[in-house]
Amino acid sequence: MSVYAFFIFDRHTECIYTKRWAPVPPPQQPPTTNGYARGATDASILARKALKAEDDAKLIFGTVFSLRRMVRQLGGEDDQFLSYRTAEYKLHYFETPTQLKFLMLTDTRVGNMRTALHQIWATLYVEYVVKSPLSPAEHPKGVGVANELFDGGLESFIASLFAPQ
Amino acid sequence: MSGAGGNATQQLRLARHHHRNQRQSHYSHTSFTSTDNQNVRCSPFATYLPTNTPNRVVFALLIINKAGGLVYNRTFAPGLQKLDGNDYLILAGTFHGIHAISRQINPAPAAQHLPGYRRPPTTGLESLESSHFRLTCFQTPTGVKFLLFTSPEQPNTEVVVRRCYEIYGDYVMKNPFYSMEMPIRVEKFDRALGGYLVRP
């Protein structure tokens, strides 16, 4: 059992928090003699990676938004989209009444994570973000969400869920 | 009955290869007008489906062609909201797009393999759960998608959707009057699906 990523989207469709549990990267290539060129490629790789992460968040939001609408259309207004699964990964979804969307990507063997997402909202997000006097009511570009307490709490909560047996 | 069973086995085997270039040879020894398979519930492949489980509900089946167009749409039991034909077409197109995107946002790391290993193709969305229904999607190697809407309690949905694919292979693909990628209007297919999925 492993977790790949965690996202929070606000009601303005903006990604306000992202956390990725990256797999161990492959070993670096040996340094080349041309230090300048190497630095340039590193920077471009980093930029591309950041761009890809941003694009991924947008794609994931688009997917979930459409699926959520589809589920409402077919199952009625009180139907809720819970999760979907492909052969490679599983996406878990939880939406609060204020249209805050909590998403988690895990591997396919993980069971229902809805209660875990609810718990993240109730015990971590509400406690450390909503009740924080320093954080604004809305979080444009994620201001005030990724504070130390929330980050650390989420880290340890996920670690306890996905602890090696 | 053993003769019918043998014929059905043969048809099944051939249906699995229907996307290959063997369709011409099918016609020589497969008679889709024969009465052998008229009642699909007599077929030996239907035996793994218990008939007396009350919460086993199949709501609807949609078939989407490889271009994202809806070619078949049928409701078997009430439970989903009523949509008009246009909404179903939009739904099929949307799902086609989501399926492609869900394949692209795969976060799983690529495992290290020996050289020469061919990675299995990544699949898109296979199963979706909501609080009222479950959607099982099965994509054939040729890109046709079978969407089966069932109740969340329904077990073995993968088996059911594969059996629908077999029926499709038997009655749609082997029908010489069916033109590819077009809406399916095959009476025997309707009857076979009804016999398999509609509970009395």
From TrEMBL, chain A:
GO cellular component: endoplasmic reticulum; Golgi apparatus; TRAPP complex
Any one of the GO BP annotations: endoplasmic reticulum to Golgi vesicle-mediated transport
Main location as per UniProt: endoplasmic reticulum
Classification via SUPFAM superfamilies: SNARE-like
Localization per record: Endoplasmic reticulum; Golgi apparatus, cis-Golgi network
Listed InterPro entries: Longin-like_dom_sf, TRAPPC
Keywords: Endoplasmic reticulum, ER-Golgi transport, Golgi apparatus, Transport
Keyword flag Transport: yes
Domain of life: Eukaryota
Annotated family: Belongs to the TRAPP small subunits family. BET5 subfamily.
PANTHER family, sorted: TRAFFICKING PROTEIN PARTICLE COMPLEX SUBUNIT, TRAFFICKING PROTEIN PARTICLE COMPLEX SUBUNIT 1
Subunit and partners: Part of the multisubunit transport protein particle (TRAPP) complex.
Name of the molecule in the record: Trafficking protein particle complex subunit
Automatic annotation (TrEMBL), chain B:
Keywords: Endoplasmic reticulum, ER-Golgi transport, Golgi apparatus, Transport
Location of the protein in the cell: Endoplasmic reticulum; Golgi apparatus, cis-Golgi network; Golgi apparatus
Compositional bias per record (Basic residues), positions renumbered to this chain: 14-23
GO BP terms, alphabetized: endoplasmic reticulum to Golgi vesicle-mediated transport
A GO cellular component annotation in the UniProt record: endoplasmic reticulum
Pfam families on file: Sybindin
Main location: endoplasmic reticulum
Compositional bias of kind Polar residues: 24-36
InterPro entries: Longin-like_dom_sf, TRAPPC
Subunit structure: Part of the multisubunit transport protein particle (TRAPP) complex.
PANTHER family, A to Z: TRAFFICKING PROTEIN PARTICLE COMPLEX SUBUNIT (PTHR23249), TRAFFICKING PROTEIN PARTICLE COMPLEX SUBUNIT 4 (PTHR23249:SF15)
Protein known as: Trafficking protein particle complex subunit
Organism (species): Neohortaea acidophila
